[in-house]
Amino acid sequence: MNVCQTCGACCASFRVDFHPAELAGGAFAWGPGVPREMTVTVTPAIVRMGGTDATEPRCVALAGEIGKSVNCTIYDGRPSPCREFDTEHAACNRARQRCGFMPL
Q1: Can you give 4-44 as a three-state secondary structure string?
Q2: Which of 20, 36, 44, 91 is the most exposed place for a label (fewest CB within 10 A)?
Q3: What is the pLDDT along the chain (104 residues), one digit of tens a residue?
């Protein structure tokens, strides 16, 4: 099992902003794209995954229990910041630390 499927710290740590073209039906959407109802409009050129700007962030697309078993409910259509995030990034260990997990 991929370590990300037992972690989920990044989905509960960072704001996720992206261009509206990545929304479902958009010009640059991967697969089905991000469902509009899971986002909030920030500006005409930026949308944000719901829940990621909360005091205690948690992406609305994250299912499961962080640190146990998690999955992205829109994995095939997830936005570019999520596609680009990797366990090799220092931000991964910052997120893990924020959630009380050991670094990878």
Answers
A1: HHHCCCHHHCCCCEECHHHECCCCCCCCCCECHHHEEEEEC
A2: 44
A3: 688 999 999 999 999 999 999 999 988 888 899 999 999 999 999 999 999 999 999 999 999 999 999 999 999 999 999 999 999 989 999 999 999 999 98
pTM of the model: 0.93
7-10 LR contacts (CB < 8 Å, sep 24+) = 7/66, 7/67, 7/70, 7/96, 7/99, 7/101, 8/62, 8/64, 8/65, 8/66, 8/67, 8/70, 9/66, 9/67, 9/92, 9/95, 9/96, 9/98, 9/99, 9/101, 10/85, 10/91, 10/92, 10/95
Long-range contacts of 23-29 (CB under 8 A, 24+ apart): 23/47, 24/77, 29/77
* Contact (CB, 8 A) for 31 and 23: no
